[in-house]
Amino acid sequence: MFESVRNAWRIPDLRRKLFFTLFALLIYRFGANIPVPGIDQNTLVSIFNSTMQNTIFGMQNMLSGGALSQGTIFALSIQPYINASIIMQLLTIGIPALERMQKEGGEEGKKKIAAITRYVTVALALLLGFAYYTMLRNQMGVVGEGAWTAIIIILTFTAGSAFIMWLGEQITEFGIGNGISIILFASIVSRGASLVNSMYTLIFPAPIENEAGEMVAQASQWWVVVLALVGVMLLVVFVVFITNAERRLPVQYAKRVVGRRMYGGQSTHLPLKVNMSGVMPIIFAQSIASFPATIAMFFGAGDSINSWFGQNSVLYSVVYFLLIIAFSYFYTSIQFNPVEIANNLKQNGGSIPGFRQGKPTSDFIKKVLGKITLFGALFLGVIAVLPTVTGAIFNVSSLALGGTSILIVVGVALETVKAIEAQMVMRSYKGFLE
Fold this sequence. Notes:
The chain is mainly alpha-helical and 434 residues long. It has helices spanning 2-9, 12-31, 41-51, 56-63, 67-70, 79-94, 96-104, 106-138, 147-174, 179-189, 192-203, 222-244, 280-289, 291-298, 302-309, 314-335, 338-347, 359-394, 402-426, 430-433; strands spanning 208-209, 215-216, 246-253, 256-258, 261-263, 267-273, 350-351. Strand 1 and strand 2 form a beta hairpin. It is globular and about 95 Å long.
């Protein structure tokens, strides 16, 4: 990774793209620390730390880099855009007109889909902004009274989310990699300082006052930090290995004569990634698994729900794990259609050795896809649940969202490196090709 960035830095055009990406991220992090008028930040942070860690707001706070718990202008972060993209993916499958627009519309069709996604993003941002304001209003002393205050807070949240969407598109066009993914990467990495502070507290704990009123030193838990660091490094290696892993199905193209030229006859492969659905099943599963705690918080029953369905409970971990497996199959079925792949191979004269074209080929692809999807789902489930189990064993609550964070950070880093390498290959950079 560092070698690719260093080589890209030597190319003036890529250096400008890297500078633009860093400048855009600087603007994002600056805006993520500007408070919204009318919100008491200190009260909001204390409420988040005490009652909202196990709710859906805790996950959104992680994805926003802590901006949600501080009530800043970028509090909603890219969550509305992610939700809008998922909704458009589902609608494209269910509505034939959108499916035709995406497949047959070409570049113009993609632009129309992107425009609709932007409108849906703004609408969801308004809805989420209103819901977040309503939640803050129900908490004593967090937001000011009055309709004007409500309008300012809701519109500020909406404008912040729309600006982040625009900023991500600018990074994609003028920078390096996928802009939305890079902003999500920056949000998660920005919480590294608080993680370092938590580790420092475990190694050098502050003295506490005993019953006699004397200050007594606490025992250092340095071994927990060492185990956590070793576990994170092993987890990163495992995530990189599975993220790059793929099952390659051999494909043979028949020879055909067009005019005076002969085409085909070559052998290639059809790559099926083990983790085809990425981190989406974890986000879906965590949203649903956190739903009972979120509802209980609104009705003042958060303590009783967290006792048996909190993030450190056995029931939550089991339900969370099963939901990840279910959503992995669901999301893979949306992204990959074996029948369509088999038809494309047949139209282009390709076939998988040992299987006839058409239905036998699609059945074989479906069978292989089911096996690797199961392995990928188990991988995601272990990555998501393992930090939660580890945090419960060692009583370190900050590890609860560690698996999701590592998966997103590593995935975006690999994707960005591939984008840099693609840019370098396109420019025929000799030092990289050697």
